[in-house]
Structures are given as C-alpha cells and as structure tokens.
Automatic annotation (TrEMBL):
InterPro entries linked: TPR-like_helical_dom_sf (IPR011990)
Name the UniProt record assigns to this protein: Tetratricopeptide repeat protein
Length: 452
C-alpha cells in the first residue's frame, strides 16, 4: 500500500528565505494582483504547502507561483506534477463542488475575497482527520481551562459547541487582557474549526449553519487578535476568510460583522476609502437585521474613514446617523459580539473622528466621556480610551492632564497586553516630551523605567 504521509516541500521553504510565512503570503497576494488573479494566501496556506499537505496547487495558485518564479515549473518549486495527483480523490472533490464558486470584490480591487477560501470550506478529500486542539491560553489570567475540539469525522453538537465556546473565551480574555500573547495561541483552534468543516457534517441543517457561523465568528475573533497585536496583514486575511464563509452560508449577520471589522482595519492601515466602502457594504447587509446598534456601529466605521479622508461634512453626517440609531436603544436582534458597544465606545469612536480631523478640543471632550463611562470589566478598552485621551490632550497642549492620563495607561498596562495601545502610548510620550514641566518629566522617568 502506498503511503499517504505528507512529504515536506523543502524547495518551497528555501524560496521563502528569511521572510515570515505571513510576509511571503503577502508577496503571493501582491503577485496575484499583478496578473489579475485572486488567491486567499495567508500564513496557514504557506505552512500547509511547506508541510507537504498541498502536493499540487490549484490552477490560480499555479499561475501566481509561475509568475513569481519565471521559467520554473511546478516540479521545480517542489510540487508534484499535476497529472500525478489526478485520480479518485480529485474526482471525489469535483463531485462535491459541482460549480465554480466566486465572489466579485465589493471593496478595492486588492481586497482578499479569494476562491481558494471557498474551496477549502466546501471541499473534502474523504481522508481528512481532525486532530484535537486546545485553545491553551492557560496561565493565571485564563478565565477557564483549556478548550478542546473533539476528534470526530462527522461533526455534531459537541464540535459546534466547542467552536462557539472558543469564540466566547477569546472575547472574554481579550476584554480583560488584550491580544498580545493570545493571537498565536488562538490560530490553532481556528485551523481546527475549518478542518471540521472539511471533515464532514451531520445531516441536520441547523447544526451545519451553526458550524459555518461559529467558524466565521472565530475567524473574526482571531483576526481582531491579529489586528490588536499588530499583525495587520494576518488580520486582513482572517477577515476575508470570515467574509467568504458568511457569503457561502448566506449569513447576513456574520457578513455585516466581517465588513465592520474590515472597515476598522482598513482605517488603521491607512486605507480610508476602503474603510468607507466596507462600512457602506456592511450597512447594506445589516439593514434587514433590525439592529439599530449594529447600524450605529457601522455608521461610526464610515465616519472614521471619512474623517481620515478629511471629509468633515460626511463624517458629521455619519456620526449623526450613528447617534440617532444608537438612541433607539438595545434590541433583541442585537448580535452577541456587540456587547462591547456601549455609550463609552460610541464616545471613543467619535473622539477618534475629531482627532483625525484635527479638532482637538472636541476630541478631548469625547475621549474624557469615553474613559469616564467605561465599565471597568473591559480593562483593555479602558486602557485604550485613556491612551486616546492622552494623545488628544497632548496635541491640544494640555501637558499636565496628558501626563496624568499616560500614568493611568501605564497602570493598566500591567494587566493589559496590546501592541496597539503600547504604540499609541509611545507616540504620545514622544509628542509630550518637548512640552516639558515637572509632571511631564516624572512621566518620562517612569516610562523609561517600565518595559513597554
């Protein structure tokens, strides 16, 4: 009997060189755009290629790889020749996917909504084995024991429940401690969640729908951890994966969530027009869901993008729509993940808008309200709001109050681990230093002594 054990692709690994898997994946996506292809290449895909799990890439990837390495063949790149991997497995997969699945990009042309994600969600080889995986967050900060996704070929309630539990646990730990240290540990449960989709499902449609939705929500949660810990390209890939999954499943709530986070990320990456377009797409999807709070949040995402563009009028209009929707109150149709979106978050996002527009007095006013209104349970967000306030106060020339806000951020960073907040604080301290004064000097001394 021929062994089916994967043989590592050492040639492909050498071609990656000193670049990380995520950096190489980004290069693959750029090369794809150069020739008009769309591929969902991320660090996990590169890892699968290098591990030998992908003996021969699909045709889209083949075209991209041959574009990246002119004159090479698939065999030269360490893959098996295509004719050697055709056979029963390929025919089985073809029967499972009777038509091509594709999405026309809703955002800018380089948005990663690629067909390979769809294939990986739908296709099974009949030989997939789902390994047990633990969330493994552990340590004194963990709110619960390890989460295990059971080993089973056919997916049922236990497996779906485990994925849903992973989503809730990640959100809880992120609220309390920030993303640093959680992101890399959360990637493995995400891989297992999509392996569960590949491994086969029960006949019950409700269970299948829950699995797609929970896997998509997990992709968004892991994407947020990547975003907050500074792995922005990884976050973009995870959000694209969630968006593709939502569209496959016809899950409007998941799609709106994916667009919401995509807009937020695009703003942070300096893609302001994409941020606006993603928010607008999210609003179109969200309107039939009957959640005013969701419409409010998406309107604020739009406002944030317009602020970065310098569109003050458009920003103010979007803020006005957000306030009107928010004031309609909570509804039974509000989504579970929106528990963080309270008045404090509303004020914080408005503060960000005025900050981007350079209106420091208004930015300070809203940032103060955000910090004052925040529930202490959301420790990470409290640190974030204080960091926003410190930056706005610094740029408004209120040095002493800014220094006090920085001290409060430093106090919270003893429990919160977020690269995004640390970068905000570092930028503020650099801007504050020239303003001088005893309180600023004391802050600088403390900041220099604390590993941040």
């Amino acid at each position: 009997m021929v062994s089916t054990r994967a043989v590592p692709n050492l040639v492909f690994r050498r071609l990656r060189g000193r670049r990380s898997a995520g950096e190489f994946a980004a290069a693959v996506r750029r090369a794809a755009r150069e020739i008009g292809e769309q591929v969902a290449c991320d660090a996990r895909y590169i890892g699968r290629v290098e591990a030998g799990e992908i003996r021969c890439p699909n045709y889209a990837y083949e075209r991209v790889f041959l574009h990246m390495f002119p004159g090479a063949t698939l065999v030269d790149l360490g893959f098996s020749a295509r004719e050697s991997v055709r056979g029963r497995g390929a025919r089985t997969a073809a029967r499972l996917v009777p038509y091509e699945l594709s999405l026309s990009p809703t955002l800018d042309s380089d948005t990663d909504e690629e067909c390979d994600v769809l294939r990986r969600v739908f296709m099974t080889s009949g030989t997939a084995t789902v390994a047990a995986a633990s969330l493994g967050l552990g340590g004194p900060s963990a709110a619960a024991g390890p989460l295990t996704v059971p080993v089973q070929r056919r997916v049922g309630e236990a497996e779906v429940g485990a994925v849903e539990k992973a989503v809730r646990e990640i959100r809880l730990l992120d609220d309390r401690h920030g993303a640093d240290g959680l992101y890399l540990k959360a990637v493995e449960p995400l891989r297992v969640a999509f392996a569960l989709l590949d491994a086969g499902t029960t006949a019950r449609r409700s269970t299948v729908d829950r699995l797609y939705s929970s896997a998509g929500e997990l992709a968004i949660s892991v994407g947020w951890l990547a975003h907050d810990s500074g792995h922005l390209d990884d976050a973009r890939s995870h959000y694209a994966e969630a968006l593709a999954t939502a569209r496959l499943a016809g899950d409007a709530a998941l799609e709106a969530h994916a667009f919401c986070n995509t807009s937020f990320l695009a703003r942070d990456m300096g893609r302001a027009r994409e941020a606006v377009r993603a928010a607008e797409a999210g609003l179109r999807v969200a309107r039939p869901l009957g959640s005013p709070r969701l419409l409010a949040l998406l309107s604020l995402r739009e406002a944030g993008g317009r602020a970065v563009l310098g569109d003050r009028s458009g920003c103010e209009q979007a803020i006005g729509r957000a306030r009107t929707a928010f004031e309609r109150g909570a509804a039974g149709t509000d989504l579970e993940w929106m528990s963080f979106f309270r008045e404090a978050e509303l004020e914080f996002l408005i503060a960000q808008c005025w900050s981007a527009l350079g209106d420091w007095p208004k930015a300070c006013w809203h940032a103060r309200r955000a910090a004052r209104l925040q529930d202490p349970h959301f420790t990470r967000n409290l640190a974030l709001y204080q960091a926003q306030l410190a930056g706005d106060l610094t740029r408004a020339g209120t040095a002493d109050e800014a220094a006090d806000a920085c001290h409060q951020v430093l106090d919270l960073l003893e429990r919160v681990h977020s690269s995004r907040i640390r970068i905000m604080l570092a930028d503020t301290v650099r801007a504050l230093a020239p303003q001088g004064g005893p309180q600023v000097t004391a802050l600088l001394d403390r900041y220099a002594a604390v590993p941040v």
